From TrEMBL:
Residues 1-24 are annotated as: Disordered. One of its GO terms (biological process) is protein secretion. This is Flagellar biosynthetic protein FlhB. It is a multi-pass membrane protein. The keyword Hydrolase does not apply. Residues 7-24 have a biased composition (Basic and acidic residues). The lineage of its organism: Bacteria, Pseudomonadati, Pseudomonadota, Alphaproteobacteria, Hyphomicrobiales. Belongs to the type III secretion exporter family. It holds the Pfam family Bac_export_2.
Amino acid sequence: MSEENDSEKTEEPTHRKLEEAAKRGDVAKSQEISAWFVMLGGAMCIGLMGSSSAGTIMHALKVYLAAPDQIPMDRDHLRAMILHLGATIFGAMAMPLGVLIVAALAGNLVQHAPVFSAENMKPSFSKLSPMKGLERLFGKKSLVNLAKSIVKFVVVGAVVFQIAWPERGRLALMMTWDVSLLLPLVRALALKMFTGVIAVMAIVAGVDYLFERMQWMKKQRMSFQEIKDEYRQSEGDPTVKAKLRQIRAERSRKRMMANVPKATVVIMNPTHYAVALKYEKGMGAPVCVAKGLDAIALKIRAIAEENGVAVVENPPLARALHASVEIDQEIQPDHYKAVAEVIGYVMRLKAKIGGRRRAR
């Protein structure tokens, strides 16, 4: 069966379709949002920890840069020096690196909940196909990503240029400055650049996320046939459900007809309504054991007559009982008097017939 064209997928995706896509790891995601959070984390590191980290590293290197000719070059001293520098630099950079890692995770978490899926890890021969590779390389998505990268480069470059150009005079003299004077300037200039880039990238990231979300929702669209198939899978085939309802109704009707011979009286109208009532001593009120319209009413009457159950024609009472009482329920108090008269009449009639038989 050929795959459906994208033009046929005009319906919005269902909640179930979106959940299944998320389980596969297919979620709306903007790389610019993650990049923005990383830049924000970088700015925080520079602003809050830049001076202390840079001072620690500068102090560790100053000892060796001030008098490099006095550094012992034997193996033990070199190893000790490298270990000391490594531990110092790692200690100074551990906190900033931790902040950047948290920022990178936050950039993903704000877009969607954590998703653990092995779908993308499954081997796929289509990924080895040269044609598929060329399609991914020169496809529409790649061209869109290239255009976005160019726009981002131009925008960020313009912001950096606007911030750095007025400082060109001081930048030219930076090579002649002492390190202790150079670091504060670099920190201030970096913070200024980060602030400008973060402000612009916030807009870029927001627009990019909306674009990626729209593209993802478009990708998840479904055809009308897919929606019907999903409904059948979740709710069941309507044809099968109708057949099951028919079978249940037929079984219920058979059980109802089996109760008609146990009835005390059947009240008719005379062909359209039939209500079979059962009453025995000790019961609070008569109970409806069967009821029906038209063909079912005639069937109830036929079974009642075959089994010697009294049939009484009382159209108003038959209609009222049919509308107010359900099977296996007691009749309403409003109908006690009328039904009592009918059942009393039936009881007297049975007693009279029984007396005649005994007299014979």
